[in-house]
Amino acid sequence: EVQLVESGGGLVQPGGSLRLSCVGSGFTFSTSVMNWFRQAPGKGLEWVSDIFIDGTTLYTNSVKGRFTISRDNAKNTVYLQMDSLKPEDTAIYFCALNYGRRGQGIQVTVSS
Questions:
Q1: What is the pLDDT of residue 66?
Q2: Coil/strand/helix, residue 16
Q3: Which of 17, 28, 73, 106 is deepest in the core (most CB within 10 A)?
């Protein structure tokens, strides 16, 4: 059974940083495309970032230069380093396996 478990969320002030982690199990992590999505209060699901098998990364425009996705295949873990956080980054963040199965999500709140 595929499982994805996020951690690392919380409350941070504007301009601060957080690092989200997502541990995957039940599939071959090293040969899987991994994604991050988010859902802000009252809004739909938004794609944030991808990391491909060869390490290629993609980002939505609003987070380019501030967020960094990475992966550690030995630990079956994908990360999202979030810097220079803004209030509009407040959302539930989900990791996903190849744009499909998602984790339960984790809350990120950016507020002073």
A1: 98
A2: coil
A3: 106
